[in-house]
Design a protein that fits this description.
- This protein is of the alpha+beta class.
- The chain has one domain: Nucleoside Triphosphate Pyrophosphohydrolase, CATH 3.90.79.10.
- The chain contains five helices and nine strands.
- Strands 6-3-8-7 form a four-stranded mixed sheet, with helices on both faces.
- β1 and β2 form a beta hairpin.
- The longest helix has 18 residues.
- The protein starts with a strand and ends with a helix.
């Protein structure tokens, strides 16, 4: 999968072209698009994952529900919509959630975040990260090649995880510090907005 082509962009998120995941993460890296999904259940708990030990970048660290990259393919190039398609694809691959169970309108776009973090002397993350929140109850089956552990946590339990000094993905730490508390406080609004969009789509069909 490291030969898949990411979407290389400039600092304003304009597409420059394709390059492999290896080249995008090796050495100084290349700025490319990514996405992060925050999946909440109906009890307001957030699904978090511990990345598999054999991941090339940031192995065995805690991260948000699902995080990966839109690919340089036709249906994933289109900004927010493309990132949503990539998110559905990877939620199926990593979490075992059938793509048909998630409507794109349920993925609430929060913001884009530009960040850079070195994993070690060889590998780096340099991404424009599209952040989505999703409220639904789904069964999961983690892919052991991607995930070592899945866990639903409350806001207090997540804070405890951070306070205990657990290894946390730098992008997830930034999301928590800058956005996650506000997202948690507006979960009902996010869920209602997604439901309203789905209802309007049903009326048009």
């Amino acid at each position: 999968m490291m030969e898949e082509n990411c979407i290389v962009v400039d600092k304003d998120d304009n597409i420059i072209g394709p390059d492999t995941k290896v080249n995008c993460h090796l050495g100084e890296g290349k700025l490319h698009r990514a996405f992060s999904v925050l999946l909440f259940n109906s009890s307001g708990e957030l699904l978090i994952q511990k990345r598999a030990a054999d991941k090339i970048t940031f192995p065995s660290i805690w991260a948000n529900s699902c995080c990966s990259h839109p690919l340089h393919i036709d249906n994933e190039l289109g900004g927010i919509d493309g990132a949503k398609r990539a998110a559905k694809r990877k939620m199926e691959h990593e979490l075992g959630i059938d793509q048909d169970l998630i409507d794109s309108n349920q993925l609430c776009f929060i913001t884009k975040m530009h960040y850079q973090a070195r994993a070690d002397e060889k590998w780096v993350e340099h991404e424009i990260d599209y952040i989505f929140a999703l409220c639904c109850d789904v069964k999961t089956k983690s892919n052991p090649n991607e995930i070592a552990e899945l866990r639903y946590v409350t806001e207090d339990e997540l804070q405890e995880l951070f306070d205990q000094g657990e290894r946390i993905g730098p992008w997830f730490r930034l999301i928590k510090e800058n956005f996650l508390n506000d997202i948690w406080n507006t979960l009902d609004d996010l869920s209602k907005a997604a439901d309203d969009k789905l209802h309007k789509m049903d009326e048009c069909q």
